[in-house]
């Protein structure tokens, strides 16, 4: 879209938080001295342990990105046939199924949480169903208890796409402990970034070991290849960035909370704009700030989106279009919009506003003024 020039500075939906450059220097010196660049080097190992401790989980396998982590998670559990998932996510969620020759079966979402509606899962289970792949959308925990109950009853695996849910906790601890596996993304647009990166959280050492083989071509040792693995490794430079970043992540999350609170105050009582409340328990990471544009708002969602973009505010319509509307999914029976009324409606109303550490109050006010105008 054409941007009007001579305007205020652009504001993007997100902006990566980076550690001070000088804090990276000692890491770079060590990498240069050791000449160990990848393949589970010392920073990789250190970062895996530090991350496990920070997240409050036991077994972390680092990956080059979240998509490879998803693809490998499915491989590691030998998932096949059909997998029940949500259409309201980034396209990588469903792509990871296609990359494994698995048929995605889309189930509608809950309006309040944006997550897969557990009450609609059972109706989509067939003899081919082997797993459920929910997403903790915008870092809001999916209905983990109810999903596990269904999985247990039907003998299904559960793999959480927790790409958004870094550092999120529920009443019992890290949200990443649920299901058979959870995957994270450390992409540039995430609350915690290694530029590109990702991880799988495993429940036990045996599962982690298998995943570690799979991300290194399937090598179990120098002369044994135990599975057709992929190259999914995170390198030493990324691990170093991760280690340096970890020292600042709490502070970055606190600053996101400030931005979230500021929007909530300034956007309260704007007719037609609804702000989904935060989860009542646990701790959130303020990764996204979704608003829903209702019928009472004087403009359509797209008109508001275009107005903001024309004003140099690059909001995003995550997650529009629904995954089920993309050409490679459109023909599936579960992609029919009649099967997905809530997801279709939410995708037509959502706008994610800019949120990132350091977003200044005057910039937040600029966004809000345009919405209120
Ligand atoms: N599952 C879920 C639920 C996910 O959300 C994602 C990724 C994945 C799986 C897969 O994980 P990865 O394989 O990516 O690790 C972005 C990201 O590329 C994608 O990682 C993310 N989800 C998705 C929600 O958003 P785009 O197409 O919106 O990115 P882009 O390049 O338009 O960036 C958005 C804004 O961020 C830009 O306007 C400016 C800012 N930005 C972006 C980059 C790349 C920066 O300031 N610096 C940067 O380096 O997809």
Structure description:
It is a single chain. The chain is α/β, with parallel strands linked by helices. Helices cover 34% and strands 15% of the residues. It is built from twelve helices and 16 strands. The chain starts with 10 loop residues before the first strand and ends with a helix. The structure holds ligand T4K. The site of ligand T4K has 24 residues, from helix 3 and helix 4.
Give a concise summary.
By secondary structure, this protein is of the alpha/beta class.
How are the elements arranged and paired?
Blueprint: E1 11-12, H1 25-34, H2 42-55, E2 59-63, H3 66-76, E3 82-85, H4 92-98, E4 103-106, E5 129-133, H5 144-154, E6 157-161, E7 169-170, E8 173-174, E9 181-185, E10 198-202, H6 205-214, E11 219-221, E12 224-225, H7 236-246, H8 249-266, E13 273-274, E14 289-293, H9 301-310, E15 313-314, H10 327-330, H11 341-349, E16 350-353, H12 361-372
Parallel strand pairs: 1-15, 3-4, 3-5, 5-6, 6-9
Antiparallel strand pairs: 2-10, 7-8, 9-10, 11-12, 13-14, 14-16
Helix pairs in contact: 2-7, 3-4, 3-6, 8-12
The structure holds ligand T4K.
Ligand T4K is lined by residues 12-16, 65-67, 89-90, 92-93, 135, 161, 163-164, 185, 187-189, 198, 314, 316, 318.
């Amino acid at each position: 879209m054409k941007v009007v020039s001579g305007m205020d500075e652009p504001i993007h939906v997100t902006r990566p938080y980076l550690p001070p450059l000088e804090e990276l220097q000692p890491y770079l010196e060590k990498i240069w001295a050791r000449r160990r660049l990848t393949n589970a080097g010392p920073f990789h190992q250190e970062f895996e342990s530090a991350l496990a401790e920070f997240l409050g989980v036991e077994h972390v396998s680092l990956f080059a990105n979240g998509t490879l982590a998803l693809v490998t998670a499915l491989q590691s559990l030998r998932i096949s046939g059909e997998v029940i998932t949500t259409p309201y996510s980034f396209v990588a969620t469903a792509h990871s199924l296609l990359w494994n020759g698995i048929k995605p079966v889309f189930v509608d979402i809950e309006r309040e949480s944006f997550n897969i509606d557990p009450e609609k899962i059972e109706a989509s289970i067939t003899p081919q169903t082997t797993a459920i792949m929910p997403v903790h959308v915008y870092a809001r925990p999916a209905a983990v208890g109810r999903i596990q109950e269904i999985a247990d009853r039907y003998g299904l695996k559960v793999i959480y796409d927790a790409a958004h849910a870094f550092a999120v906790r529920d009443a019992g601890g890290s949200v990443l402990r649920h299901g058979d596996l959870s995957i994270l993304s450390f992409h540039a647009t995430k609350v915690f970034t290694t530029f590109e990166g990702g991880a799988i959280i495993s429940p036990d050492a045996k599962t982690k070991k298998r995943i570690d083989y799979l991300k290194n071509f399937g090598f179990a040792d120098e002369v044994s290849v135990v599975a057709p693995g992929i190259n999914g490794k995170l390198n030493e430079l990324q691990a170093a960035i991760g280690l340096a970043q970890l020292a600042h992540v709490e502070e970055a999350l606190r600053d996101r909370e400030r931005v979230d609170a500021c929007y909530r105050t300034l956007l309260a009582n704007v007719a037609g704009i609804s702000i989904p409340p935060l989860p009542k328990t646990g701790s959130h990471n303020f990764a996204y700030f979704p608003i829903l544009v209702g019928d009472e708002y004087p403009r359509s969602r797209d008109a508001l989106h275009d107005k903001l973009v024309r004003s140099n505010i690059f909001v995003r319509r995550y997650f529009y279009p629904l995954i089920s509307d993309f050409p490679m999914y459109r023909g599936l029976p579960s992609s029919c919009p009649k099967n997905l009324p809530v997801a279709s409606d939410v995708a037509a109303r959502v706008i994610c506003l800019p949120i990132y550490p350091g977003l200044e109050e005057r910039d937040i006010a600029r966004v809000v003024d345009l919405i209120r105008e």
